[in-house]
């Protein structure tokens, strides 16, 4: 059902959905699909071919064919756009109504309104996200909780700049088809926000700003740039008013940072060090290559191990050389009701943000409103009154391909506790995602799609590379099955009666398939999406 030729909406229409699923939005989706979806599928095929080449013994390196872009010192990205000059603390989180208001009232400089890692793409979430953003920009948003607590926005001049993160190129949107084909989740999220809010943002002196996730090459960035050109023309806003910060969160993209900035240069607002997906991608990219690329327990891999340090140092150096913001990532610690754990979490945030600020990052992320001030204090100490530190060029940084690939220098062990944590957290997260909730606090840590991907990939890698745990037990199918059994029993006992109303059987089956299957699946969220209505 739709009034636009060739476009079908197969998902149910909820309250006010017609305000977002307008003919103008559907026309843009159709145009983007017809002009760009073929290239999107080619890029996904290129990813598969690269993985095969790596499995056959290949490696990653800076690209010879784009050396001239890296060697040309003359180009810069566009100057920072209004609202994106001072980004010292950015809140992230889902776009449901309550969290939208809480994020906008958090005191952060920017808010990453997430349709990606922190969101589960339930059809309602896909449409309600842009609807809530539209109501925020119109200042008509409010919310009353079931307990009777009312929420409304602070004055305009205290609100963060909105930056929307659409889904990655790999995810389809099955509830909107064009010419009988599933559409791209990325292009749907982009189009729905651009049409409902793009012109309003330009009229209020800012622009439609985006974070672009999980790209694996500069050619994927070129595809986004082409979508931006089409989108700006479609909604009648000047070229260059769209801005995008690209997450460098895949291993191949770390070798193409300059090229990614170059492709998007008139629309660029910097790069971000997305550490969690980066770790996932490191495991995924060299998953069959044995000890050289096998990582220890997830919680023991810090930002200061050599390969992570090389990646963040190179990101700051690259961004500032090109006049672009370098944005830091997410420390997963969230506040706790236990005072000792709470103090530990806040110390961890201070340590993480202080290191980033001293390294030259222009700002960083927090997952919880309670952590905004702590991160702000860390950046204030380094930035003072300056809005950013784009002038800190970091010419002392000289990172080589070998530095980026130096995974084997990572200290740490693979332990039974690490295996159990991966299994338990992975299953709990998948269960929550299947019910439509894409971020969860588990054991004092923020968990989202990226962290869950690490958990299931580590189990697969340990099993398929013959890893032995620190206590001498080999990781076998039987051991993983036993751990799954025991961890699910522990979850069931902790949840009590609530367990029966969850989607635990589905979550367990999916996690087991992902962890034990002979074939490694590129994304957990793709088969999970198939299990969604
Ligand atoms: C790898 C990456 O991509 S990182 C970026 C993507 N991930 C994220 O953005 C995760 C964002 N964080 C979250 O979603 C949440 O903090 C969670 C799910 C981890 C924990 O949320 P909760 O369990 O609700 O935490 P808690 O009970 O401490 O929250 C206290 C209040 O803060 C609000 N809050 C917590 N986190 C956020 C957030 N990120 N955005 C807006 N509000 C938030 C809660 O809604 C709650 O509000 P209320 O008091 O009005 O009811
Ligand atoms: O998106 C951020 C990440 O760390 O992954
Ligand atoms: Mg990510």
UniProtKB/TrEMBL annotation:
Taxonomic superkingdom: Bacteria
Malate synthase N-terminal domain location: 5-67
One MF annotation (Gene Ontology) recorded for this entry: malate synthase activity
Active-site positions on this chain: 165 (proton acceptor), 448 (proton donor)
GO cellular component, one term: cytoplasm
Malate synthase C-terminal domain: residues covered: 414-531
Keyword annotations from UniProtKB, A to Z: Acyltransferase, Glyoxylate bypass, Transferase, Tricarboxylic acid cycle
Record GO biological process: glyoxylate cycle; tricarboxylic acid cycle
Entries under Pfam families matching the protein: MS_C, MS_N, MS_TIM-barrel
Keyword Cell membrane: no
Pathway: Carbohydrate metabolism; glyoxylate cycle; (S)-malate from isocitrate: step 2/2
Malate synthase TIM barrel domain boundaries: 161-406
Family matches, as CDD domains: malate_synt_A
UniProt EC number: 2.3.3.9
Group of enzyme by EC: transferase
InterPro entries noted in UniProt: Malate_synth_C_sf, Malate_synth_sf, Malate_synthA, Malate_synthase_CS, Malate_synthase_TIM, MS_C, MS_N, MS_N_TIM-barrel_dom
NCBIfam families: malate_syn_A
Family membership: Belongs to the malate synthase family.
Name of protein: Malate synthase
The species this protein was found in: Modestobacter italicus (strain DSM 44449 / CECT 9708 / BC 501)
């Amino acid at each position: 059902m739709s009034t636009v030729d060739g476009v079908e909406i197969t998902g149910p229409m909820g309250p006010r959905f017609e305000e977002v699923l307008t003919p103008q939005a559907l026309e843009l989706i159709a145009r983007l699909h017809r002009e760009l979806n073929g290239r999107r599928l080619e890029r996904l095929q290129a990813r598969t071919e690269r993985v095969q080449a790596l499995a056959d013994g290949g490696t990653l390196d800076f690209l010879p064919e784009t050396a001239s872009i890296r060697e040309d010192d003359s180009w810069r990205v566009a100057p920072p756009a209004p609202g994106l000059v001072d980004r010292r603390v950015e809140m992230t989180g889902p776009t449901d109504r309550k969290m939208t208001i809480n994020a906008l009232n958090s005191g952060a400089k920017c808010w990453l309104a997430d349709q990606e890692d922190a969101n589960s793409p339930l059809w309602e979430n896909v449409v309600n996200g842009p609807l809530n953003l539209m109501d925020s920009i119109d200042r008509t948003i409010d919310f009353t909780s079931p307990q009777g607590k009312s929420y409304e926005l602070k004055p305009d001049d205290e609100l963060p700049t909105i930056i929307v993160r659409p889904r990655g190129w790999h995810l389809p949107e099955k509830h909107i088809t064009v010419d009988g084909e599933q559409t791209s989740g990325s292009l749907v999220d982009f189009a729905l926000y651009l049409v409902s809010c793009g012109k309003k943002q330009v009229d209020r002196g800012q622009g439609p700003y985006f974070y672009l996730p999980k790209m694996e090459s500069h050619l994927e960035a070129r595809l986004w740039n082409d979508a931006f050109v089409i989108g700006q023309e479609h909604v009648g806003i000047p070229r260059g008013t769209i801005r995008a910060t690209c997450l460098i969160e895949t291993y191949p993209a770390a070798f193409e940072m300059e090229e990614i900035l170059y492709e998007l240069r008139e629309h660029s607002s910097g790069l971000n060090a997305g550490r969690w997906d980066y770790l996932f991608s490191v495991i995924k990219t060299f998953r069959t290559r044995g000890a050289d690329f096998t990582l220890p327990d997830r919680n023991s891999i810090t930002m200061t191990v050599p390969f992570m340090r090389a990646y963040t140092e190179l990101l700051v150096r690259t961004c500032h050389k090109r006049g672009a913001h370098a944005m830091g990532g997410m420390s997963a610690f969230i506040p706790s009701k236990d005072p000792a754990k709470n103090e530990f979490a806040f110390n961890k945030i201070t340590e993480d943000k202080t290191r980033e600020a001293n390294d030259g990052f222009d700002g960083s992320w927090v997952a919880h409103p309670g952590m905004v001030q702590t991160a702000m204090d860390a950046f204030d100490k380094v930035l003072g009154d300056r809005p950013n530190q784009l002038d800190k060029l970091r010419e002392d940084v000289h990172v080589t391909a070998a530095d980026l690939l130096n995974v084997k220098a990572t200290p740490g062990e693979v332990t039974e506790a690490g295996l159990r944590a991966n299994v338990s957290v992975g299953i709990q997260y998948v269960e929550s995602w299947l019910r439509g909730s894409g971020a969860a606090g588990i054991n004092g840590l923020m968990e989202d799609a990226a962290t869950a991907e690490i958990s299931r990939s580590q189990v697969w890698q340990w099993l398929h590379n013959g890893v032995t745990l620190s206590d001498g037990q080999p990781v076998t199918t039987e051991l993983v099955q036993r751990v799954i059994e025991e961890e699910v029993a522990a979850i069931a006992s902790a949840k009590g009666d609530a367990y029966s109303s969850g989607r635990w059987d589905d979550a367990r089956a999916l996690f087991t398939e992902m962890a034990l299957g002979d074939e490694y699946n590129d994304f957990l969220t793709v088969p999970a999406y198939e299990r969604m209505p």
